Amino acid sequence: MIQLTINGLSTSVEEGSTILEAARFLGFPIPTLCHLDGLTPSGNCRLCVVEIGEGERARLVSSCTYRAEPGLKVRTSSERVVKARRMIIELLLASCPQSKVIQDLASAHGVRRQRFRQEYEDCILCGRCVRMCEEQMMAKAIGFRGRGERRSIGTPFDVQSDVCRLCGGCLYVCPACQLRCTYTEPEKAVCGGCANIAPPCIEKEQFSDLMCYMDPCVACEIQKDQ
Q: Residues 201, 212: contact at Cβ < 8 Å?
């Protein structure tokens, strides 16, 4: 067993466990997008970032791919982590603003604007479909192509694959295809139609190393009942 600390709480996890698995075991919520139970973790979207280490050596890592280490100190909701997640969500909105999955993430994390050039693309290159096709359907009909700005997902040479069974598994796991947001003003990247009231405790938190991670937030529930 490996001993580590998450948000000030000591815990033991089996060797080979990821930080994401350890945090979920303790009940600390970490948002994910490219990660899907049953598929190999890839860390493509970086939404599950957490902060490890202390002082100047502290750094952000993807919790779905980073393995737990003895004595590791993890913060799942520090000020640095929250800012990074919000920026990642803004970038996702720039790529696929009509994805309800991404719009729900924006609402849940207090993202009310998007500062990057709008692209209105349908693919965010999370790789869920590629891993589903290869690992669950055993087909390898699709894959990543190109690099950088030209990176895309499809079949080699855009020729219909002879191993594709038209099972629809790729569509089933795609966050851009599952549901489409129906807002009527595409110029506005953030719909806000599903936005919740922002937790009152987050911006007032005295310690930047640990912000609100409760879901639902206890302070919000108390305020709502009064």
A: yes
Instruction: Catalogue all structural domains in the chain, each as residue range(s) with its CATH number.
Output: 1-76 (3.10.20.740), 128-173 (3.30.70.20)
pTM of the model: 0.81
DSSP 93-140: HHH-TTBHHHHHHHHHTT-----S-----S-----HHHHIIIIIS---
pLDDT at residue 204 is higher than 50: no
> Over pLDDT 70: what percentage of the chain?
82
Q: For residue 24, how many other CB atoms are within 10 A of its CB?
A: 14
* 3-state secondary structure (DSSP) of residue 203: coil
**For residues 129 and 155, what is the distance between their CA atoms, to the nearest angstrom?**
12
- In order of 77, 90, 124, 199, 206, the CA distances from 107 in angstroms are 17, 11, 18, 12, 24
